[in-house]
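User: C-alpha cells for DUF3828 domain-containing protein, please.
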Amino acid sequence: MHRMIGMAWAFMAATFATALAAPPGAPADSARAFYAAYEALRPSGVPNADQRGKLRSHVSPALDGLLAAAAAAEARHARRTRNEVPPLVEGDLFTSLFEGATRFTVTSCTNDDKAAVCQVALSYKDGRSETAWLDRVHLVPVAGRWVVDDIEYAGGWDFARRGRLSDVLKAVAREADR
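Assistant: Done. Predicted C-alpha cells:
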C-alpha cells in the first residue's frame, strides 16, 4: 500500500513538473491570431501608433520596441526631409512580398519551451494572377502565451524582401540617423 502511494506521488510530481515545463498554448494558434490581426490592418511601411496598438498583444516586447523605434525613425526622417522624399521603408513589412498577403495558412510549427518557429504559406491575389510563398514566423512565450518575436522572409523571387523583420526595423532606425 505504501509503495502504491509512493508511486502515485511520484507520478503526480512528474506530471506537475511536465506541466510547468510545457510551453503555454499552441504556437500555431498564436501565429494564426497574429496573421488575422495583420490581415485586418494590412499596414504599409512601418505601422503607425494605432496599428501597433492593435498588433501589440500578438508581438513580443522586443518586436514591439523595434516597431516603435522604426516608427520614431520614420518620423525623424520625414521631419528632416520635410516629407519631400519617400519613407525609408515602403510596402508590407510582415511578408516577403511588397504588396503583402491576401491569404495565409500556418502549415507547421516546431517548438521547445523557449521558442517556436511556424512555417506560413502566404499568397497574394490581384485578380489576374496569384503569387504564393512560404515565410517563417518566430515566436517566444511571454506572460503565459506565445507571441511573435520575428519574421523570416523566405520568398524566392528576385525582388522579395530578404532576411528578417527585426533586421529591417534596425536598419530603418540606423538609416534615419545618418
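User: Anything notable?

Assistant: The longest strand covers residues 130-142.
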